[in-house]
Structures are given as C-alpha cells and as structure tokens.
Write a structure and sequence with these properties.
The complex is a heterodimer of chains A (321) and B (522). Chain A is mainly α and 321 residues long. Chain A contains 13 helices and no strands. Helices cover 80% and strands 0% of the residues of chain A. Chain B has 522 residues and is of the alpha/beta class. Classes of the chains: A mainly alpha (321), B alpha/beta (522). At the A-B interface, helix 9 and helix 10 of A face helix 2, strand 6, helix 3 and helix 6 of B.
Chain lengths: 321, 522
C-alpha cells in the first residue's frame, strides 16, 4: 500500500509541476504579445493632445520605460502575491475589477456545465441502448445541427423565442448575487443554455460512441455471463469506463464554456469578464489585460490539472503506471 | 453412441440460427439444425474451423447472442427447461449461477477499472449472497482452488497487474464461483502459451471432477481436445457433421472432413508436402546480433546480452513461454524499439508477419494500397507498370490473384489476411522475414496452408525466417535449428533434433514437458 501511495504522490507532484510550468509559459507569452502589439498605454491615457514630455513622465511612472523582461519579472512577482497592479483606465486594483465581474462568468460556466452533464449523459445512455433506432437518429441529427451553430447566434434565437413569443424573459434584467441571488441566477439561465447547447451536442456525441464501444466490450459480455442486470452493468462497468475518456473531453468542454461565456454575455448585456476584457483591449489597459489573461489561463490550467487528477483517480492504469 | 445410463443436462434440439436483415429476411443460416446432448458430468469437445458455428452454438446456450441473431427454429433444454422461450429475467438468474462461461481473451474479459475482489464479488451479489463476510470467504477459497495460494493479495489487485494466465484463472474462478452445473469454455487456452495451457486444462479438469461440473469445450486446438474431452463433435458450416468418443474420433475418423481436419492439425510435413531449403552453415550469417539489450523504458532492459545468428536460407525456430522476451527481440531486430549492442544485417529490408492479421491491416484501404505501402515506406520509386508487376507477382506467390486487389481486409478470411501480410513482406524481396506467432490466431486448416506457404517461400526464394511460435510441433517439422529464450536471455540453442530430444536448460525442459503432456508422445 505504501508503494502505491508513493506512486500516487509522485503522480500528483509531477502534475503540479506541469501546472506551474504551463502557467509561467502562458503568462510570459501574454506579456510578450502585449509588448509587441502597437499602441502605447500612456499615449492613449493622456489623449491625442498630450506633449511627448508628459507621455514620457507617465511611462516612467508606469514602469513602461524599463526593458520588457524586467517589467515581466516585476509583474510576475506581483501576480504570485495576489497583486496584479492597478488598471490604467479604471484607476482601480485589477484584482477587485476582476472579482466584481467574476460571479457572472463563473456562474454562467457552472450552470452551463451542469446543463451539459444533466442533459447529454442521459440522452447518450438512452441513444446508445439501441443504436440506429429512430430516437437515436433524431438525437444524433439534432446534435449535428446544434454543434454547427455558434453560441451567439443561438443566443439571439433564444432571446427572440423566449422574450418575444413566450414572454418569460427580459433581456438586461440583472442583479448582483449579493442583492438578489434569485434574480442573479434567473438572469444567467438563458445565456448559460445558449453556451451549453453546442457543448451538449458535442458531449452527447462523444458519450454515445464511448458507451456503444463499452457495451460491445468483452468484459460486458463477461458481466452478462455472470447474470448481472443491464442497469447494474451500465452503472458499474460501462459508465465508469466511458468516464475515463469523457473526463478529458469534459475539461475541454469546460474551457470552451468559459471562452463562450465571454461572447454570450455581450449578447445578453451582462456585466461579466467579457466586456471588461474588450474595454481593456480597446484602451490598451495592459495591467488589466495581462491580469485578466493570467486569471483566465489560471482557471483553464487548474481545470486541466483537475481533469488529469480525476483521470488518475478513475483509471488505475494511469495512476499505477 | 447414446448411453441410456447417463442423464442429459443439456439437450440442443434441431437448433437453427441466422442474422436476418430488412433487405435479406431469409439469409443462409449460421447454425443449421444443430442437434446434440451433453451428459451430466462429461467434458464434451466441439471442434471445427473458424466460422463453422462453434462460438455461435455456445453463445446461444449461454444467452449471449450478438445483436441481430435470431433463433429460427429448435430448442435448447437445460435441466429440462427450455432456454429459447425463457424470459430474459429468468435467463439472468441462470447465467453465472447454473451456466458459467469462460472466454477466449483473458486480457479484455475483465473490467480494467475494477479490482479482482470486487469483480468476483459482483457475481455473488447478483445471485443474492447478502453476507459480506461469507462473500469474502467464498472468494478466497475459490481463488485458492484456482491456484492463488495468497488470495488476500490478489483481491486488491487490478487486472492489468496480472498475467494472461493469471487473468484466465480469475475468469475461471468467477465462472465457477456459484458452482454452475454447466461450464461453457470458448477457446479458453488459445491465447495462452503451452505451459499455461497445460496448467489451465488441468485446473478445469480438477474443477469438473471436484464440483461435478459438465463442460462444453470449444477449441480449434485438437491436442487440447484429445487429452481433455470425453467426447468430441465436429462442426462444419453450421452443422454438426460428426460426433464420437474422443479416442475413436481422433484415432479412427470415419468422416472424411474430420480426417482432413486431423491431417491439417497434425501438420505432417509429408502429407502437407513441406520442403524447406538446404542450409549451408559454413556461410556467414545473414543477421548477427551481439550483446543486444533492449526494453520499453530506459530503466529496465528486457533483453539481456542476446547473441543471435541467422544463416542464409535458414528457418530458425525461437521458442519460450510468454513474457520470455521473444517479441521484444523481434521488435529490436526490426528497429521498432531502441536497443544497445550490435545488429549486423546484410540486406536493407526485413519482412515482418505478426500474430493477428486483423489488426495489422488497415480496414479503410484496399489490398492494392497495402501492397504499395511497403514501397512508399522504403522510398522505392517504380513506374506504374513495374509496381503493378511486382504487386501481381507478390500476390501470386502467396496464392491469391488480381481479383483480391480491390477488396478490403474485412472481405477476406483470417488465412487470406495473413497471406496479404506475407505478400506485403515480399514486395521488398527481403532476405529475412520475422514471423511472430503467424499461426496462432488461425484455425488448423488455415495454419497448415500458411505453414506450407512459408516453407515454399523459403525453398523457392531462399528467404531466411525467424519463426517465433509456441507450437513446438511446427518447429520440429520445419526449423533445422532452434533457440530457446527465458527471461530475456538465450538459454539454449542448437540443432532442433538435439534440443527437442535432450533439452538441457530448465526453460526448454519445462516447455517440452508441457508439450508432451498436451500433445502426447507423437
């Protein structure tokens, strides 16, 4: 047992190191990218009428005159101690700007993920029971269609359908979670659904073929020869084995959902990270921009890390290699 | 000959089965009027070539027929109850409790995510054993019976931590756990080496006697059947065409087809017309390795200082039990895995033929594509006419013709696929072909054909072969020299006659003892 524990710890340690390395690389690349693209924060902040001396003074104040690598190291030191600097445009700490917008983005992502799992898994299980039957064919066809339509188009269609024909949704009604949690969640459901739909289609397609593959496996035949019932075989053999591969897909889906929410919140006019990101790009607000990219990268990398750990938990062959 | 003193536990009565589709509602039957009974306590063998309907018969009895299979007539009576008309729920109650099944492939027949103990416990839970301590005791005693002296340590392991033979023991344990009256074994030993095969057959025989089990034993390994079964039935094209006591059937076959099957299985060089090339051992070897070490990760080398010589025109036999490093050696020679030490080869290409012709060919492509692929890989540019000429000559050499060129692998039989794999080797006209268990996934008739093909190529083209097989009988027949491997080393080498009559190494003695036990003394 101790040998196994040791191996598990080593697996965990390797994965953690990978996570840190990825994070460093991503942050460096963002920083490098932003120092290459044209546009100067000081110039934009002071407007077109500023004199070169004023701009130079502000550049010194912001530390923009130092070499990029020094700027990066300074920024990195801040980032790992929780200080992402101060937004040039908003004159507020980047951390608090992000914290203020985060609930919308995270909330939408969580709701969308729950929708993906709750809708796609049962459909996949039902479809895979009798592949080729009418129900399976309808689900697969709908899956193809939904997969092909981008989320912002779906958002518009959903808004038109629910607001105009069903009259159950008002665009732009939003309350922060601290004020009215009910309304907060209510306002996120439709946009979350718009993000989730293509991902439901994708996860459904994937899970369906994974389950069909497992259904045809030799150990399912063995389990049948042991007299196990279909539901028992599904729960104890087929689903756990399908999950091994679906964990990786789900982590991809989750990071896609995160990206999708940035766009969809624009359509639904929600105060999430997406709008903040756009305005930061427009105003060349480097501290805010690099802070946000760093934050999103952090979330994504942690998601992948979690997926790796879960895959190890789900499959002893990965863990005990 | 029916014996009225016996009671019959299973009666299959005029059973017919087919796979009807909407386009073809009345296709040719897969099982055609199959009729036999199994006596209480006997071991009944069922032999026949691939596709003869052996497995389908077994699955019909076990209630594990594939999607689309329809029983079109007849009945299956188990202990007086008709299985064909029984509800799915009642069949489930029988499955695992009164009828146990052991499958061919132990590597994939266990859920890779489930510990062995849990896997076995499931059977007991499914059949209503509620007491956890009782389940544990029952599992431990069963594991001891199937040959695990320390069951507690096996319970917490995962399937991938066990060898093929150990997994087959676990599967036997799971099938025997509820002491079923009938145990169906579908090729339970064909993926195991000779030593393990003998052990598994011994175990099954013990279980049969001690637990009063009846066994239906399906195999294309006639020597296993000979030593194991009381009676044997022969299947061909969905019908049972011959049945008799094992001794009578195997030593004095009355049926012409049975006689043919036996001849093929015996692989007698005179009857098959096998003739190999003469080898001149004074010539310098075509392939020489010196202190060859190789493995799958840097830390652990599986091969240990292997010195191997293969002479021109020679068929060199390589034997050893599973996991001895035979396949690793071929991979190192073929350059598929990294190695240290020398490999000197006098030609530029080495051909390779592997065990499983199904997974070696790309299902998406035609035979023509497969045959042009080696040329592309070797960077050989030929004109269209030259390529076509070479493809046809390779195809003719392996006994196929141009009508196969546009077919895809799934439209060929196992033997034909193995021929395509050999033709792919011949495209580059190599001086050496490495053949890793080329017969073991084929039935006796196809194996005999492929064996004849290999000796023909050896004689006519002078191609050398490194032939890896767990069938010592084949080595005896066609390889003048043999090499024995154990734990990554060559432990014995020399003339086949010498080694097979008076082996010196422990590994060779073990292999030959097992072989003798399995095949008798011929």
């Amino acid at each position: 047992m101790t040998e196994t524990t040791g191996r598990n710890m080593r697996y965990l340690a390797i994965k953690l190191l990978e996570l840190l390395a990825t994070l460093l690389l991503v942050s460096f690349l963002t920083f490098a990218a932003f120092s290459i693209i044209p546009g100067d924060a000081a110039g934009i902040m002071l407007g077109p009428n500023a004199s070169p001396e004023q701009i130079a003074r502000l550049r010194t104040e912001l530390g923009l005159d130092k070499p990029v690598i020094v700027q990066y190291i300074n920024w990195l030191g801040g980032a790992f101690t929780g200080n992402l600097g101060t937004s040039v445009a908003y004159k507020l700490p980047v951390i608090s700007l992000i914290a203020e917008r985060l609930p919308v983005t995270i909330g939408m992502s969580v709701i969308a993920t729950v929708m993906v799992i709750v809708i796609s898994y049962p459909l996949a299980i039902l479809s895979a029971r009798k592949p080729g039957r009418i129900g399976d064919q309808v689900c697969s066809f709908l899956g193809h269609v939904l997969f092909a339509v981008p989320p912002f188009v779906l958002s518009l269609l959903l808004i038109i359908f629910t607001a105009k024909f069903l009259n159950i949704f008002t665009v732009g009604r939003y309350a922060p979670p601290s004020k009215d949690p009910g309304m907060f969640i209510g306002s996120l459901i439709l946009p979350s659904f718009a993000i989730a739909l293509p991902k439901i289609a994708m996860t459904f397609k994937f899970m369906r073929s994974a389950i069909i593959e497992q259904n045809n496996s030799e150990y399912v035949k063995t389990a049948k020869s042991h007299g196990l019932g279909n539901i028992k075989i599904l729960m104890t053999h087929v689903l756990p084995n399908s999950n091994v591969s679906s964990i990786t897909i789900l982590s991809l889906v989750l990071s896609d959902i995160l990206g999708g929410s940035l766009i969809v919140e624009q359509v639904f006019n929600l105060p999430g990270l997406g709008r903040l990101l756009l305005s930061a790009i427009a105003r060349r607000d480097f501290p805010l921009l690099s802070g946000m990219v760093f934050y999103l990268a952090l979330i994504t990398v942690v998601l992948y890390f979690a997926a790796d750990i879960l895959a190890g938990l789900a499959d002893p062959r990965i863990r005990l290699k | 000959m029916p014996d009225i003193r016996h009671t019959h536990i299973l009666k299959v009565h005029h059973l017919s089965l087919s796979f009807p589709t909407r386009k073809n509602p009345d296709p040719a039957p897969v099982l055609n009027d199959v009729d036999f009974s199994v006596r209480d306590g006997e071991i009944l063998g069922l032999i026949g070539n691939s596709g003869s309907g052996k497995t389908m018969t077994a699955m019909a009895i076990a209630g594990l027929l594939p999607e689309g299979a329809v029983i079109t007539g007849g009945s299956i009576k188990f202990a007086g109850r008709d299985l064909v008309s029984m509800s799915a729920k009642n069949r489930r109650k029988l499955a695992g409790k009164d009828i146990g099944v052991i499958f061919q492939e132990p590597m994939t027949a266990l859920d890779p995510l489930m510990k062995i103990g849990k896997n076995l416990e499931e059977v007991l839970i499914a059949h209503g054993e509620k007491d956890k301590a009782k389940r544990h005791d029952k599992i431990c005693s069963m594991l001891k019976t199937v040959g695990f002296p320390d069951p507690e340590s096996v319970i917490t392991r995962y399937p991938h931590q066990l060898s093929g033979g150990q997994r087959q023991r676990i599967l036997i344990a799971s099938a025997a756990l509820m002491s079923p009256r009938l145990l169906i074994c579908d090729e339970p030993t064909s993926s195991l080496d000779t030593v393990t095969t003998v052990q598994i057959l011994g175990l099954l025989k013990d279980l049969c006697r001690s637990m009063h089990m009846t066994i239906l034993f399906i195999s294309h390994d006639l020597s296993a059947v000979k030593n194991f079964c009381d009676r044997v039935m022969v299947m061909k094209e969905g019908r049972i065409i011959d049945k008799d006591n094992t001794m009578d059937l195997l030593s004095h076959p009355k049926n012409g087809y049975t006689a043919e099957l036996l001849t093929n299985a015996r692989l007698d060089p005179r009857i098959l017309g096998l003739e190999r090339a003469m080898v001149d051992y004074t010539k310098s070897p075509i392939l020489m390795t010196h202190e060859l070490n190789a493995g799958y990760d840097n830390a652990r080398s599986i091969l240990k200082d292997v010195d191997l010589k293969i002479y021109p025109h020679e068929i060199l036999g390589l034997i050893g039990s599973s996991g001895c490093g035979k396949t690793t050696l071929t991979k190192a020679i073929l350059g598929i895995i990294p190695h240290t030490g020398d490999i000197k080869y006098k030609d530029s290409h080495i051909g390779a033929v592997f065990q499983d012709p199904v997974s070696c060919l790309n299902p998406a492509h035609t035979i023509r594509w497969h045959l042009t692929e080696p040329l592309k890989a070797a960077g050989i540019k030929l004109t269209k006419e030259e390529t076509e000429k070479r493809i046809l000559s390779a195809l003719f050499e392996v006994g196929l013709d141009e009508k196969y060129l546009n077919r895809r692998p799934r439209q060929l039989s196992g033997g034909q696929r193995q021929r395509v794999a050999i033709a792919m080797c011949l495209m580059l006209d190599p001086k050496l072909i490495v053949a890793d268990e080329p017969f073991s996934s084929l039935d006796a008739s196809s194996a005999a054909e492929i064996l004849k093909l290999l000796t023909d190529i050896n004689r006519e083209k002078g191609t050398s072969f490194l032939l890896i097989t767990h069938n010592i009988h084949i080595v005896r027949q066609i390889a003048p020299r043999v090499v024995v491997m154990d734990s990554g080393r060559i432990v014995e080498e020399g003339l086949t006659g010498d080694i097979l009559t008076s082996p010196k190494s422990e590994a060779a003695i073990k292999l030959l003892t097992a072989e003798k036990e399995l095949h008798g003394s011929n």
